[in-house]
C-alpha cells in the first residue's frame, strides 16, 4: 500500500533521537535503512505500504475511496463473469435446458449422481424431518445394511440446499436441478473473489486481484472442472479453502487492530468449518497447511499467538464437523489432528527452542521435529487402534504404492494408480499455463520469494539470545509473514499437484494469486529497479500499473476470440443406451430390487430409479471396499456358482454387466479392471505380454464373457432380462432346495 507521509512533532520542532514505534490502526511504522528515524504513513486501501524513492506523495481525499470502489466492482465483475461462463459452457455442452429429466440425471456421472440423489431424496420426502430420518437410517445405498449417510458422507450441502429450496418461494419459476447447479456455479464466483482478495492483500493493488481473476478464468481447463462434474465435493469445498487462505493472509498482516484480528479469527474458523464439512479429504489438505504453520514457526516468521491460533482454528473446524457427522471416527483418526496435538505438546515442553546461535538453533529444530513426528505417528496409531479406524487406509495404500519402487497387486491401490487423474502432472499443463503468460511471472516470483525467505530464515535463526533488540526486530521484519505463508502454500501444493494430477485444482487457483502478486508487488519491483539502478517512486508506480495492464491487454486480444468461439460451440447430450437402461429399470423392476454392478453405473441407477445398490463410488469405508471387490468378480475368471454366491451374499437381485468394462481397451494391459482382478486373484492376465512367474492360469473362463453364451451352468442361475449394445442385465434365480437323497446339483427356477 502507498502511504501518505505525515510529519511528526520532532520534525517540526527540531531533531530528536527518540523513536516512536507505536502503530495506529490506520498507520504502519517504517524504519529507513541507516537511520534511526521512523516514517509513519497512513495506509490507504488498495495502495502499497512500502516506501520507495524520495518525495512526498499527495493524495486527494476521495482517491482512496475511488480506488477501493473500483477494486471491489472489478472483483464482482470477474466473479459474475466466471459463474456465467461455466453455466454457459455447461448448457452448450449438454443442451441441458432441452433434456428430459432422466437425461439430466444421467449427466451427473459417477459419484456426482450419488451425491445429487440425496438432494433429490430430500426434496421427495414428505417433510424435512422425515427426509433427515431417511438419511440417518438409510437402507437403500447399501443392501442389507442400514447406514447413517450424514455420518458416512459429506452431504450436508445437499441437505442445506434441499431445505432452502423447500422454504424459499422459488418453486414456480426455478426447477430443483437449476437451483442446485446455479448454487455450485455461484461458488465459482466466490472462488474468484477469494483469489482476487488474496492477490490484492499480498500486493496492495487491486490490479493484482483483477489479473488473478482473469488468469483463473482463462486457465479454466486447469483451474476447475465444475462444468462437467458439478456435484464433486471439491467444487463445493475449494471456494471455501480459497476464502480461508484469504482470511489467513489478512490475519497475518501486521497493522491489524485487536478487534480486526478477532474478526479474522472467526472468519478463519467459519471458512475452515465449511471447507471441512464439504469434502472428506479435508484432513489431508489441512495437514499440509499445518506443516506450513509449523515451518514458519520454526524460522520465527510467526508469533506464538499466531501459531497457536491457527492450530486451534484447524482443530475447532475439524471437531465441529466431527460432531455434525455423528462422531465420525475418521476425523479423530486423521493425521492432522495427531500432528497438531504433538506440535503443541512438544512446543510447550521444549521452551528453549528459539534460544542460541545458528548451529544450536538448527540442532534444536531437528530434535524438535523428530519428537513432533514420532509423537504424531504414535498418537495416530494408538487412536486408530482404539477407534478401529480403517476408513482411510486405502489412501495410505495408494500413497505407499505410488512412491514404492515395485508394483503392487493390492486392488484398491491399483484402482487409483491406474487412473490418469492420479498420475503425474502432464507437461502439457505447463504449456497451457505458459500460453496465458501465467507461468512466466509465477516462476521468477517463486524464485525471488524463496531466496528472500531463505535469507530471512537464516537471519532469524542467527539472532542469538544476547542479540540487540534492533537486530531481533530487523530479523523479524525481514520477510512478511502473510507472503511467507502464501509462498509455502503454493510450493507444497505445487509438489502435491505434480505428484497427483487430480490435486492440481488446489494449486493452479492459488498460483494465479501468487503470479499476480509478483507482477504488482512493490517490494519485488523495488528490488528489481534497485538492481538496475533506476529506482524512483514515479517509475515504480508507472511499472506497477503498466505491466499488469499490458498483460491484460495481451490476454484480451489473444483469448477473447477463443473464449467467444468456445462459448458459441453447441453440443448435445447423447447416451441412448443408458437412457434405455434407466427407463427399463424404472418401469420393469420392483422398487425394492437390489442391483449389482460397477460403482459408477450404480450411482446413476440410484439417482434415476431409486433402486437399492450393493455398492457405490463413495469409497471411504472398509466393508464397502471389500464388497465392491467381491461384486467386481463378475469381470474376473470365476465359476458361475462362485459369482452367484457372492452376489446373493450381497443381497443382489439383478446384476448389470457393461461391455465397456468386460472388453475394455481404454487402459493399458495391467491396468484394465479385469487385469486388476486377475492379479488380485493370482491369475494370468489376458493378451500378449509378460506375467509374474507366480501367476497361474485360471480354471474358469471370464464370467462376463461366458455368461453371454447362455451355457447351461449359467442359465441355471441367471436369466437375461435386458440387453442393448452397452449393457446386459441378468436376474439371479432362486435355487431350489436340495432333496436329501439326490446328489445332483440343484436346479434353478426360472
Automatic annotation (TrEMBL):
Q: How is the protein disposed in the membrane?
A: Multi-pass membrane protein
| Coiled-coil boundaries | none
Q: Which InterPro entries match?
A: Dpy-19/Dpy-19-like
Basic and acidic residues bias (residue ranges) = 14-24
Q: Which GO terms describe its cellular component?
A: membrane
One Pfam family in the UniProt entry:
Dpy19
The record's subcellular locations are: Membrane
Q: What UniProt keywords apply to this chain's record, in alphabetical order?
A: Glycosyltransferase, Membrane, Transferase, Transmembrane, Transmembrane helix
Gene Ontology molecular function, alphabetical: glycosyltransferase activity
Q: Where is this region: Disordered?
A: 1-34
Membrane-spanning segments: 200-218, 263-281, 322-346, 358-382, 439-462, 507-529, 541-560
Protein family per UniProt: Belongs to the dpy-19 family.
Q: What name does UniProt use for this protein?
A: Dpy-19 like C-mannosyltransferase 3
Amino acid at each position: 500500500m502507498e502511504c501518505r507521509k505525515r510529519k511528526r512533532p520532532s520534525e517540526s520542532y527540531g531533531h530528536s533521537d527518540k523513536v516512536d514505534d507505536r502503530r495506529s490502526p490506520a498507520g504502519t511504522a517504517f524504519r529507513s535503512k541507516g537511520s534511526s528515524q521512523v516514517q509513519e504513513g497512513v495506509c490507504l486501501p488498495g495502495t502499497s505500504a512500502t516506501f520507495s524513492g524520495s518525495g512526498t506523495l499527495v493524495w486527494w481525499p476521495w482517491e482512496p475511496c475511488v480506488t477501493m470502489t473500483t477494486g471491489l466492482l472489478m472483483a464482482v465483475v470477474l466473479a459474475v463473469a466466471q459463474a456465467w461462463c461455466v453455466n454457459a459452457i455447461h448448457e452448450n455442452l449438454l443442451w441441458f435446458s432441452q433434456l428430459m429429466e432422466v437425461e439430466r440425471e444421467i449427466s451427473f456421472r459417477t459419484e456426482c449422481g450419488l451425491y445429487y440423489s440425496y438432494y433429490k431424496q430430500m426434496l421427495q420426502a414428505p417433510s424435512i424431518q422425515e427426509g433427515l430420518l431417511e438419511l440417518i437410517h438409510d437402507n437403500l445405498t447399501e443392501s442389507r445394511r442400514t447406514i447413517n449417510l450424514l455420518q458416512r458422507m459429506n452431504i450436508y450441502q445437499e441437505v442445506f440446499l434441499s431445505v432452502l429450496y423447500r422454504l424459499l418461494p422459488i418453486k414456480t419459476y426455478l426447477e430443483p436441478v437449476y437451483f442446485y447447479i446455479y448454487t455450485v456455479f455461484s461458488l465459482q464466483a466466490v472462488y474468484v473473489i477469494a483469489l482476487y482478495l488474496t492477490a490484492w492483500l499480498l500486493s496492495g493493488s487491486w490490479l493484482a486481484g483483477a489479473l488473478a481473476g482473469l488468469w483463473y478464468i482463462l486457465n479454466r481447463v486447469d483451474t476447475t472442472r465444475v462444468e462437467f462434474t458439478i456435484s464433486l465435493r471439491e467444487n463445493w469445498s475449494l471456494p471455501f479453502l480459497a476464502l480461508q487462505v484469504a482470511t489467513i493472509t489478512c490475519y497475518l498482516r501486521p497493522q491489524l487492530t485487536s478487534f480486526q484480528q478477532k474478526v479474522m479469527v472467526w472468519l478463519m474458523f467459519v471458512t475452515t468449518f465449511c471447507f471441512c464439512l464439504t469434502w472428506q479429504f479435508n484432513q489431508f489438505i489441512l495437514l499440509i497447511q499445518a506443516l506450513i504453520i509449523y515451518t514458519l514457526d520454526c524460522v520465527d516468521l510467526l508469533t506464538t499467538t499466531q501459531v497457536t491460533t491457527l492450530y486451534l482454528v484447524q482443530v475447532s473446524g475439524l471437531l465441529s464437523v466431527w460432531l455434525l457427522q455423528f462422531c465420525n471416527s475418521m476425523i479423530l483418526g486423521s493425521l492432522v489432528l495427531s500432528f497438531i496435538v504433538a506440535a503443541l505438546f512438544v512446543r510447550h515442553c521444549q521452551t528453549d527452542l528459539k534460544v542460541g546461535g545458528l548451529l544450536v538453533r538448527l540442532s534444536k529444530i531437528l530434535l524438535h521435529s523428530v519428537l513432533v513426528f514420532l509423537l504424531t505417528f504414535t498418537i495416530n496409531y494408538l487412536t486408530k487402534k482404539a477407534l478401529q479406524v480403517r476408513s482411510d487406509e486405502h489412501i495410505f495404500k495408494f500413497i505407499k504404492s505410488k512412491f514404492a519402487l515395485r508394483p503392487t497387486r493390492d486392488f484398491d491401490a491399483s484402482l487409483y494408480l491406474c487412473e490418469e487423474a492420479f498420475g503425474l502432472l502432464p507437461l502439457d499443463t505447463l504449456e497451457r499455463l505458459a500460453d496465458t503468460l501465467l507461468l512466466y511471472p509465477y516462476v521468477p516470483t517463486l524464485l525471488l520469494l524463496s531466496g528472500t525467505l531463505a535469507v530471512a530464515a537464516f537471519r532469524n535463526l542467527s539472532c542469538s539470545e544476547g542479540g540487540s533488540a534492533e537486530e531481533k526486530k530487523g530479523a523479524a521484519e525481514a520477510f512478511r509473514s502473510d507472503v511467507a505463508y502464501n509462498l509455502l502454500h503454493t510450493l507444497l501444493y505445487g509438489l502435491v499437484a505434480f505428484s497427483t494430477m487430480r490435486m492440481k485444482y488446489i494449486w493452479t487457483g492459488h498460483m494465479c494469486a501468487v503470479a499476480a502478486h509478483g507482477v504488482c508487488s512493490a517490494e519485488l519491483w523495488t528490488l528489481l529497479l534497485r538492481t538496475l539502478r533506476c529506482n524512483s517512486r514515479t517509475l515504480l508506480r508507472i511499472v506497477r500499473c503498466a505491466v499488469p495492464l499490458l498483460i491484460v491487454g495481451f490476454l484480451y486480444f489473444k483469448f477473447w476470440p477463443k473464449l467467444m468461439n468456445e462459448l458459441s460451440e453447441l453440443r448435445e447430450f447423447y447416451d441412448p443406451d443408458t437412457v434405455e437402461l434407466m427407463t427399463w429399470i424404472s418401469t420393469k423392476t420392483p422398487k425394492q430390487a437390489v442391483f449389482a454392478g460397477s460403482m459408477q453405473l450404480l450411482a446413476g441407477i440410484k439417482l434415476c430409479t431409486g433402486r437399492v445398490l450393493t455398492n457405490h463410488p463413495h469409497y471411504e469405508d472398509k466393508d464397502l471396499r471389500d464388497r465392491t471387490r467381491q461384486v467386481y468378480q463378475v469381470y474376473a475368471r470365476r465359476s458361475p456358482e462362485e459369482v452367484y454366491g457372492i452376489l446373493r451374499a450381497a443381497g443382489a437381485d439383478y446384476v448389470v454387466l457393461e461391455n465397456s468394462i468386460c472388453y475394455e481397451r481404454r487402459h493399458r494391459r495391467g491396468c484394465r479392471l479385469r487385469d486388476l482382478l486377475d492379479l488380485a486373484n493370482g491369475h494370468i492376465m489376458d493378451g500378449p505380454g509378460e506375467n509374474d512367474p507366480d501367476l497361474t492360469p485360471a480354471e474358469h473362463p471370464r464370467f462376463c464373457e461366458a455368461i453371454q453364451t447362455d451355457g447351461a451352468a449359467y442359465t441355471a442361475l441367471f436369466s437375461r432380462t435386458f440387453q442393448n449394445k452397452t449393457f446386459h442385465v441378468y436376474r439371479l434365480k432362486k435355487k431350489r432346495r436340495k432333496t436329501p437323497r439326490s446328489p445332483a446339483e440343484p436346479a434353478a427356477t426360472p
